[in-house]
Amino acid sequence: MQSLVLANLTQRPTRTIASILGVAVGFVLIVMTVGLARGILYDAGQRERNVGAEILFQSPGGFGGMATSPMTLPVAYCRLLNQVEGVQTVTPVGRFLRSGAGGIGFEVVEGIVTEPTADYASYAQISGIRIVQGDELRRDDEILIDRQHATTRQLAPGSIVRLFDREFRVAGIYEPPSGARLKIRLNVMQQLLGTPDKCSTILVKCANPDDQDAVALGINERIPGNRVVLARDIPNYYENSFPGLPVFLRVVMGLAMVISALVILLAMYTAVMERTRDIGVLKSLGASKGFILRVIEQEALLISGLGAVVGFLLALLTRFGITTYTTLLIKFELNWLLMALLIALLGGALGALYPAVRAARQDPVKALSYE
């Protein structure tokens, strides 16, 4: 039977290749959509987690992370936070969400403190970022970018970046990734957004990281009515901040299954019509209905399996291109790859079911006389 299945596939190579590519499209649709969604959330969560602080203090309307927190939190809270037992130091951070380059997607600009005062430390003191190329922020028209942003946008110290309808010069490139990829001075962001003495979030560094739960409780008691987020919980906030994502992913999986099923249905139906006489010969030689059905289904499953392999290779190639030329992260997870494979095989099996049943029910006499 195996040799018969392979012979049927190689007899019409163009149709077989087209069918494999059709299944591959459905596979790529699943793994790329899921990988992009998971990758963006994971990357954002990890960068927020790497800010170096154990606690994020925000206004009541703030987001669980930092990406969409408005500039409504008074910087004066820094003095009160420093008085909470267990707090080592704090620093205010501003956030602004803007459309990405060319209007595609979005990116976050961060306003940071570069000079410590009696009430707060600098952002670098808490986050631990270091300049690996260029210099620190020294002027109001300068900006810092991380290594990934510099590589994908082909920027270097001295390059010009346009923000808030004005030009900023890249002062330096920093590592490791922490918070937003673009950073300007907090006082500049306050001036440009018309929010003097306001910030989006106050990062709180604990004297003993193991005491962060007790410190968070102390902050809630001393400054009630605000939002206190533990940095370790930020990735979960990102995961849970898009409740419609699971539904969207299920729709994508359903669409991919439909694509695979239709491709296999068309390919197998055409194959059955072309091999009507051959099927008649097999049945006249004693082939049972079950045998004919299994041959058609095995062809479909083999095409679906090859389509999944080709789809995975195409997905790897696509991921390489996207991650090389953009700051997006695409994360492939084994469970989703297995899910995409299962959907491809299931779609192929369902798509081949009608042609297989049709072939198994053919009258051998009529099939032999078919021209």
Structure write-up:
- The chain has 371 residues and is an alpha+beta fold.
- Strand 7 and strand 8 (166-175) form a beta hairpin.
- It has 13 helices and 12 strands.
- The model has no long low-confidence stretch (mean pLDDT 81).
- It is elongated.
- Helix 1 (2-11) crosses helix 11 (289-325) and helix 9 (245-274) packs parallel to helix 12 (334-360).
- The strands form 2 sheets. Strands 1, 3, 4, 5, 6, 7, 8, 9, 11 and 12 form a 10-stranded mixed β-sheet that branches. The chain has a two-stranded antiparallel ribbon with strand order 2-10.
Give the fraction of residues assigned to helices. Answer: 40-55%
Order of helices and strands: HHEEHEEHEEHEEEHEEHEHHHHHH
Structural class: alpha+beta
The overall pLDDT average reads 81
Counting DSSP E segments of at least 2 residues, the number of strands comes to 12
Our Rg estimate from Cα atoms comes to 29 Å
What best-fitting shape do the alpha-carbon axes yield?
elongated
Number of helices: 13
**Distance from first to last alpha carbon:** 25 Å
Features of this protein?
10-stranded mixed sheet; elongated; 12 strands; alpha+beta; 18% strand; 371 residues
Q: Any chance you could write out the topology, listing elements then pairs?
A:
Elements: H1 2-11, H2 13-49, E1 55-58, E2 73-74, H3 77-82, E3 87-99, E4 106-112, H4 123-127, E5 130-134, E6 142-146, H5 147-153, E7 160-163, E8 166-175, E9 182-185, H6 186-193, E10 198-199, E11 201-206, H7 212-222, E12 227-230, H8 234-240, H9 245-274, H10 276-284, H11 289-325, H12 334-360, H13 364-368
Parallel strand pairs: 4-9, 6-8
Antiparallel strand pairs: 1-11, 1-12, 2-10, 3-4, 3-11, 5-8, 6-9, 7-8
Helix pairs in contact: 1-11, 2-8, 2-9, 2-11, 2-12, 9-11, 9-12, 11-12
